[in-house]
Amino acid sequence: MKLGSLLLIAFAATRLTAQQPAETHDVPAATTQHSGSVETNHQASESLGAEPTAAGHGAEGNKDIIMPHITDSHHIEIPWLNAAWGKEIELPQWAPVHLGPLTVDLSPTKHVVMMGFAALLCAVTLITAARSHTRHSLDAGYPKGFSTGVEATVLFVRDEVIMKNVGHHGEGFVPYLLGLFFFILFANILGLIPYGSTATGNISVTATLAVLSFIVIEIAGMRALGKGYWNTIFYWPHDEPFSIMKVVLFLILTPVELLGKFTKPFALAIRLFANMTAGHVIVLAFIGIVFTFGSWFIAPAPIAMAIGIMLLEVLVAFLQAYIFTLLTAVFIGQIREAHH
Fold it and tell me: What is the phi/psi pair of residue 90, to 5°?
């Protein structure tokens, strides 16, 4: 969500009401000039609406302040004073790669840029905090300042979220899960700032994170259980005598066990995607009320509600990073202790 864009909503609503009569007056002129051509009329209407949008002053350009935060594209916005406080920069588009019948487009998009930026923020934040922690501990005997806050967050996630759920000898999973937590956190927060975009509002991004967690979970189970890992797929109660019911349970519960392996990453992907998208859509609905009525008098209430949702989104950004990390740790701990 563009926090700064809310300040322009009242102005945009008045611009919308001011421009509508002019636009409706210009369209007949275009149709008169090219009477009898439906295609030409359509092009004229598009050109009339495209000019103010490109300049950032049109009704369409003013309304589109929320969806760019959750939709992907081949351009990215940057602050720019001479074009309604924003300018679009086209990202490079490369030739697609053909892998047999598949065509893969590896061109960078806005969400790819945001993911790279989130990863860079993770590295800079954690490395800077670690060096500051070491320097202050050597000089003063204790950490202070920014590094103290980062240390408190790292210790909480490690001790209360990871170690308590992964179980014994879970130190090896701490780097991955801590990196996962901070990456999701920064990716979520980048969608709350002006000119930012929520990469975690893209189902492809959340699905990739879920697949990576799925791989870590299954490899953790293989290493911890050895041959017993197959018992997490094929249900066979070894502590019961052989009977026809044992075979029936095997045939019924084995597909259930196998399905359960895929429902976990599916739930991780959908939960993060839906929660990070929902807040933006709700804010868009509130802001849409302003443009629907196009009045100064109706603007304060929707703006106040939108601001409230945006403040809640700050909490959701931290909460969803916490939940994704927590559930991944829980699933790792479950499969490492699995037995039938």
Answer: -75, 130
| CB half-sphere exposure, 244, CA atoms < 13 A | 0
Given CA atoms 278, 280, 285, 286 in this order, what sign does their dihedral have?
positive
Amino acid letter, 285:
A
153 Cα distance to chain centroid? 21
Structure tokens at 25: 């007056």
- For β-strands 102-104 and 97-99, DSSP reports them as antiparallel
Q: CA 233, CA 230: separation in Å to the nearest integer? A: 5
d(CA 253, CA 189): 41
- What pTM was computed for the model? 0.75
Tokens matching residue 243 = 């009977």
For 181-197, what is each residue's pLDDT tens digit? Answer: 999 999 999 988 888 88
The secondary structure of residue 236, as a DSSP letter, is: -
Among 260, 268, 251, 244, which residue's Cα sits nearest to residue 338? 260
CB 127 within 8 A of CB 211: no
Q: Which residues pair with 4 in a beta bridge?
A: none
Say if residues 58 and 64 touch (Cβ distance below 8 Å). Answer: no
Residue closest to 2 by CA, chosen among 267, 231, 241, 279? 279
pLDDT of residue 65: 55
For 262: left if phi > 0, alpha if psi spans -120 to 50, otherwise beta; the answer is: alpha
